[in-house]
Amino acid sequence: MKPEDIIIAPVITEKSNADMQMGKYTFEVNRKATKVDIANAVEKLFNVKVLKVNTMTVRGKTKRVRYVEGKTPDWKKAIVTIDTNPGDETYLGKGGKEVKLSKKYKDSIDEFAGA
Fold it and tell me: What is the average pLDDT score of the chain?
């Protein structure tokens, strides 16, 4: 699946807006997508580093219009935690020299809130 097919829409509620301060973003995702698929799609679409993905299936509600009773569809929700402090990493290279590797990730998803 393409990343555009996995992430359907952001879920914007009071709780998800409060969680954005901690680096947690909520998305409606394809029901067949796995956690690994979701993490790769978010990293590719928004250029952020994903630390953790929590998923849940939201059951549809029973609705009634006059005498006919129906049900809204089930959907899958994913809460994605991103790295809010993408700092530089250092490691020892050949000959014991320190090599500095800069991360090219953003620390927030600007497109989430419609900015």
Answer: 88
Residue with tokens 């953003």: 106
Task: Tabulate helix, strand, coil % of the chain (nearest 5).
Answer: 30, 40, 35
pTM: 0.79
Q: How far apart are CA 31 and CA 54, in angstroms?
A: 13
Using the Cα atoms of residue 45, residue 48, residue 50 and residue 53 in order, give the sign of their dihedral. Answer: negative
Strands 89-92 and 7-10, sheet pairing:
unpaired
Give 64-97 pLDDT, tens digit per residue: 999 999 999 999 999 999 988 766 667 777 777 7
Domains assigned to the chain: 3-105 (3.30.70.330)
Give CA–CA dist 40/75, Å, rounded: 20
CB atoms within 10 A of CB 8: 16
